[in-house]
Amino acid sequence: DSLLLEAGFLAVLVAPLHLLKWRSTAWRPHDSVTFWLVRWLLFRLMFASGVVKLTSRCPTWWGLTALTYHYETQCIPTPAAWFAHQLPVWFQKFSVVATYVIEIAIPLLFFAPICRLRLFAFYSQVLLQVLIILTGNYNFFNMLTIVLAFSLLDEEHVGRWLGHSKRRHASSESPAWPPSLRSFLSTLLELSTYALLLYWSVQSFGLEINWEKRLLDSKVAFTYHEFKMWLQAVTLPLVGLGFLSLSWEILSALYRCACVRGCFWKLWAMLQWAVFTTATVGMFAISLVPFTYIDRESNDKLWPGIHQMFGAVERFQVVNSYGLFRRMTGVGGRPEVVLEGSYDKQSWT
Fold first, then answer.
1. What is the pLDDT of residue 26?
2. What does this protein do, in the record's words (predicted)?
3. What are the backbone angles phi and psi of residue 240, rounded to the nearest 5°?
């Protein structure tokens, strides 16, 4: 419900405002600024959900055994959950590792300057949500998360889905060789990112193939204290990363406003840019308070004015803290309500 409230409020900023009916408002120069807030919400949701699983000190999350219980003890499992529960333990543990990677490491790619990295992050998040939908009933939550993930896409990629992508000339369809320096550096950075992600996963979770038993061994290769130190070290830099990403969107939108034709429409675009940028920066600022709940020391280092701003709007729940499945439930067995009735007080049904 908190996620629905926050996403609903962001929709007020993202949705087109048709004040001037005689002027098409299908595209606005500042759209990328307000839409960035959706991406920031998705980042806070996923990153915090991965972090709290470890900060809770839940033995099943630390032992990578959470999914050996989850499919059986969740509130409303689907028929597919029975089949998922029958999977071997080594695969269940690897699934927990994949969950950590998708929720903690991959969200950093939401702000990557390379489109393909953002697409990789998009499909990773959608894959996780689809698997959850197949094995559990969580109402609109997973569908809403997928909708938020669309903030990682660009118009060109969506156009390919819809068959609206522009066809290039035959001469341009063949790749140019040698590739440009920008293309080479982009590919190199992309491959380096994948390699670093794989290396981090192997080192952090002790991934090792057991050829004799034909299974994949995995274990958490760090301590709680080490994780807390890491979290303390990265929380404020992540805030800085978000600020740099937002600043880029703001400056890019300002440039697009300057490119609008006509003096009046240029001023109109600049006015909208100023209003929506102010609202976006304000939303980003107050969201830092619930985001930094994952590390109290980082939360205490925030400017006191930000805490005052958050306190003024806290009751409206326009920004919230998140942390899904902080502790695995039903480890000791799920309590069941049993109703019995009898007509003769002798035989009970």
1. 61
2. Involved in the maturation of specific proteins in the endoplasmic reticulum.
3. -65, -40
CA–CA dist 291, 71 (Å, integer) = 29
pLDDT surpasses 90 at 162: no
DSSP for 289-306, written as a single string: HHHGGGSHHHHHTS-HHH
Separation CA 210–CA 49 (nearest Å): 30
C-beta separation of 67 from 96 below 8 A? yes
In whole angstroms, what is the distance from residue 286 CA to residue 320 CA?
A: 10
User: pLDDT exceeding 70 applies to what percent of the chain?
Assistant: 93
Q: What is the pLDDT of residues 166-216, one digit of tens each?
A: 554 444 444 555 678 888 889 999 999 999 999 999 999 999 998 888 899
**Phi, psi dihedrals of residue 278, rounded to the nearest 5°:** -60, -45
Between CA 258 and CA 255 the distance in angstroms is: 5
Rounded CA separation 110/242 (Å): 10
Coil/strand/helix, residue 56: coil
Half-sphere exposure of 215 (CA within 13 A, CB side): 11
Q: Copy the structure tokens of residue 227.
A: 């994780």
Coil, helix or strand at residue 48:
helix
d(CA 317, CA 314): 5
271-303 per-position pLDDT tens digit: 999 999 999 999 999 999 999 999 999 999 999
Please list the alpha-helical segments (H only) found in the chain: 2-14, 31-55, 59-62, 67-73, 79-85, 89-100, 115-135, 141-149, 155-162, 170-173, 181-205, 224-258, 263-291, 296-300, 304-313
Least Cα distance to 230 among 47, 46, 43 occurs for 47
What's the pLDDT score for residue 166? 55
Mean pLDDT over 311-318 rounds to 94
pLDDT value for 168: 47
* CA distances, 7 to each of 1, 83, 130, 284 (Å): 10, 33, 20, 14
What DSSP character marks residue 179? P
**Cβ-contact 281, 316 below 8 angstroms:** no
